[in-house]
């Protein structure tokens, strides 16, 4: 369980005095500090003066419609969730308030329990207080991703999450699920699945459907009823599997393998891939109709090297996670920021973990970082001097040199050939000769 920040300040925009007083009393007892604005004008005035962690907003206010105020609130308090409360819960109001950026919608009369729960979840999301599932970062890119998550979570839209390996795609999927309020998060990794296995996993099967089907098994689709179905590595599906999936996405109906009962599942689909699905559609390896089905909204999670400003925060976060007290010098942080992080956040996380286990001493210098990133050549170089024979020493150096350059340029052989000034074919020959892995 997470503990609520007892100093969370809330703005309650509500013109009905009896309602606002009651709410204030109860919320204060729960440890919130509540300011009341009985009109939009008053709310505007208050947010100029102080910061609020969250806003409770009535829609029918004396000087206007709360719906028209949401956008302004979002701009003024971009990190603070807005919960709309109203007695006139018309569907179009719900839709519009969520669209404008409200976090949730409560229809009067609501129970206090419901309000407190909603509030707690909203504040946790905004400040990432729930353990283990935080999305750390305050770069523009990450803020934009968080914003999008918040916007789409409650909807039924299918979501496609794209990005390099290790950027946090699964984390995004889980966040969306958590905020959606849906039941279960059911995931299926589509990589390395034969068509038979994919179908068995997705649809489930009846006893005897195939030789190894000793008993009935429910498929992921069924398990995800009223929950979220997360299809990871969706770009790896074969054409046949794509066709099967498309059919069930169109109808939301299917049968278990070897069965004839028609099952309807109300799942919400989230998919992820580190492949360029658009390009795959163009070249014909991914069905266009399927793409449109799964990509109701596309969330692109940028690589870590494009949001370097998050690196110190992430380092701090992982240090805390591993209960590790280390201090990175300015220089060492600078080096971390200039690293390419091909494995993105996962690589950074592993790096910190490795360092916490193996590094003695509290301070982490630039040289330490180099060592733990495996980008130091000093030891290898001193070994070179042990060689008696110049030819062997030269070759060893050549190998190290090429390895280092390849690492530096992310394995881009063409680029490296250009940079070090030899022919591409010559470079390939050397890579092969020395058995260098790219
Ligand atoms: N912004 C972040 N804040 C905190 N932890 C993060 C963040 N982004 C990623 N992580 C952590 O990094 C690891 C990799 O993230 P995740 O598994 O979500 O990546 P992915 O994009 O799904 O990778 P892959 O394509 O290889 O499956 C996880 O342990 C995750 O918790
Ligand atoms: Mg993943």
From TrEMBL:
It comes from the Bacteria. The keyword ATP-binding applies. The modification 4-aspartylphosphate is found at residue 58. GO terms for biological process: phosphorelay signal transduction system; regulation of DNA-templated transcription. Residues 9-123 form the Response regulatory domain. InterPro entries: AAA+_ATPase, AAA_lid_NorR, CheY-like_superfamily, Homeodomain-like_sf, HTH_Fis, P-loop_NTPase, Sig_transdc_resp-reg_receiver, Sigma_54_int. GO terms for molecular function: ATP binding; sequence-specific DNA binding. Keywords: ATP-binding, Nucleotide-binding, Phosphoprotein, Transcription, Transcription regulation. SUPFAM superfamilies: CheY-like, Homeodomain-like, P-loop containing nucleoside triphosphate hydrolases. Residues 135-357 form the Sigma-54 factor interaction domain. This is Fis family transcriptional regulator. It comes from Thermocrinis ruber.
